[in-house]
Write a structure and sequence with these properties.
The protein has about 80 residues and is mainly α. It has 3 helices and no strands.
Length: about 80
């Protein structure tokens, strides 16, 4: 499924650029930041929303949630 491939690619990109999350609080902060970016796009007027941008932001939220699980929970 392409969606899962996109999430995996985003996860790998972020993991190559940034070290693992140091704590649950740091991981949550990153997820929150990505969520706020998605929220900003969703809260635009319907005609001003970018569906590709919403998909990109949601993919980043999913990738950071995956990273949280791997870096914090299953470490």
């Amino acid at each position: 499924m392409q969606l899962l491939t996109d999430v995996r690619m985003e996860y790998r990109l972020a993991s190559s650029k940034f070290p693992p999350f140091n704590s649950a609080h740091e991981g949550l902060g990153i997820i929150w930041e990505e969520f706020e970016e998605l929220k900003a796009e969703v809260f635009k007027k319907k005609g001003d929303r970018s569906y590709p941008s919403m998909k990109n932001e949601a993919t980043q939220v999913a990738a950071m949630a995956l990273r949280f699980i791997l870096d914090v929970v299953e470490k």
